[in-house]
Amino acid sequence: MEDNNKVTPKRGFPGQKASVQATLRWQGREGGAMAFPEPKPRGPELPQKRLKTLDCGQRAVRAVRFNVDGNYCLTCGSDKTLKLWSPLRGTLLRTYSGHGYEVLDAAGSFDNSSLCSGGGDKAVVLWDVASGQVVRKFRGHAGKVNTVQFNEEATVILSGSIDSTIRCWDCRSRRPEPIQKLDEAKDGISSVKVSDHEVLAGSVDGRVRRYDLRMGHLFSDYVGSPITCTCFSRDGQCTLVSSLDSTLRLLDKDTGELLGEYMGHKNQEYKLDCCLSERDTHVVSCSEDGKVFFWDLVEGALALALPVGPGVVQSLAYHPTEPCLLTAMGGSIQCWREETYKAEDGTG
């Protein structure tokens, strides 16, 4: 066991591993020697043009999630339903009913054939996308399920609960109990993310824990404030952590070193989402003041405060490869693209 308790602030340029390629890219120096300096490449465009607002008809939307390729999205409703949408078209494709209480999180499998969801009924549900039917319902958590994820092969569902445990459920087995239980957290699990061999978990106890499944190691970093969301950077070298002190922190995944802090948004009461943009250039967060905040990852400066509406921006999802953002507020979701975006039908 290793415990990286000490988070040491580092001023100026964030850590070498995370930033060298980014610096070269921004300065136009990637590649071989040049006789003349290249023009500085255009910075990435941020999604700030609202394309659509969809009334989801689910009372409050608790979470919005893209599928693996970004063509579809899921919305989790306080009316106990899960809905599948084509967000750019604004089309509802299917409604999934089977939870006994509000749905709090959902995820799609790598091949788009299955969904998993968790909610206030303490259940984890495996769904067949095409038929809309419940394949399995896993019970065992002692409290509401805040977060669910598939592993890469979609053979295991990982669920994090207010009961302070992460449970791993075998999608192919009929056995009712989990194949593994991770119970190191001292308070509720708010966020779980999965890579090919790692599980990243954030807890209300103020710690972000990374389980290396290949090596059998647990790494723990103390943030201090209750954690609301965690995620890996897309290059897999950093972790982003948001907490109830209205601060996001970028940590070196291997050492726990604090590479950057991002402030200006409001997050003091609610479990809100954060993420990195599709090219790891910006840190993105929901806020309780009705905006989505974008910070330059390297500089730490606020790049955009995007007004969404008068309430809390409860959830967000960033497209895996394009500057496309989904936000959830109240009973609706909003779809955002970059200013230069033109829709295929010419209405963009």
UniProtKB/TrEMBL annotation:
GO CC aspect terms: catalytic step 2 spliceosome; cytoplasm
State the compartments where it is located: Cytoplasm
Gene3D superfamilies in UniProt: YVTN repeat-like/Quinoprotein amine dehydrogenase (2.130.10.10)
WD repeat feature ranges: 54-95, 96-137, 138-170
UniProt xrefs under Pfam families: WD40
Tell me a GO biological process for this protein.
Answer: mRNA splicing, via spliceosome
What PROSITE patterns does the annotation carry? WD_REPEATS_1, WD_REPEATS_2, WD_REPEATS_REGION
Major subcellular location class: cytoplasm
InterPro entries noted in UniProt? WD40/YVTN_repeat-like_dom_sf, WD40_PAC1, WD40_repeat_CS, WD40_repeat_dom_sf, WD40_rpt, WD_repeat_MORG1
Question: Which keywords does this Swiss-Prot/TrEMBL entry list?
Answer: Cytoplasm, Repeat, WD repeat
- Record-linked SUPFAM superfamilies: WD40 repeat-like (SSF50978)
Q: Which family does it belong to?
A: Belongs to the WD repeat MORG1 family.
Question: Subunit notes for this chain?
Answer: Interacts with EGLN3/PHD3. Interacts with ERK signaling proteins MAP2K1/MEK1, MAP2K2/MEK2, LAMTOR3, ARAF/Raf-1, MAPK1/ERK2 and MAPK3/ERK1. Identified in the spliceosome C complex. Interacts with PARD6B and CRB3. Interacts strongly with GTP-bound RRAGA but not with inactive GDP-bound. Interacts with p62/SQSTM1.
Annotated PANTHER family = WD REPEAT DOMAIN-CONTAINING PROTEIN 83, WD40 REPEAT PROTEIN
Name of the protein in question: WD repeat domain-containing protein 83
- Source organism per entry reads Balaenoptera acutorostrata
